[in-house]
């Protein structure tokens, strides 16, 4: 990975610096998202999170904002050509 993997981290990793097999499963779901969007930068986790961040900043840092929206159950949308079964698997990872 180039740069900070912030956008691939599970909520508990963002807030409590906890890393486990569960946070690895979360990251696997993010990896699936990237694969099924064919690594198109328009659908990258970073871009999608930052688009959401632009509209709801409320003075929060990016890690705190990510933590909040993820605990509120906001999730990445399905990539445009992603089969429903694969997106369902991603959601189970998250």
UniProtKB/TrEMBL annotation:
UniProt-listed PROSITE patterns: PROTEIN_KINASE_DOM
GO cellular component: cytosol
Molecular functions per Gene Ontology: ATP binding; growth hormone receptor binding; non-membrane spanning protein tyrosine kinase activity
Alphabetized UniProt keyword annotations: Kinase, Transferase
Keyword Protease: no
Gene3D superfamilies: Transferase(Phosphotransferase) domain 1 (1.10.510.10)
GO-annotated biological processes: cell differentiation; cell surface receptor signaling pathway via JAK-STAT; cytokine-mediated signaling pathway; growth hormone receptor signaling pathway via JAK-STAT; intracellular signal transduction
Pfam families: PK_Tyr_Ser-Thr (PF07714)
Protein kinase domain segment(s): 1-94
PANTHER family: TYROSINE-PROTEIN KINASE HOPSCOTCH (PTHR45807), TYROSINE-PROTEIN KINASE JAK3 (PTHR45807:SF3)
Name this protein carries in UniProt: Janus kinase 3 (A protein tyrosine kinase, leukocyte)
Organism (species): Nothobranchius pienaari
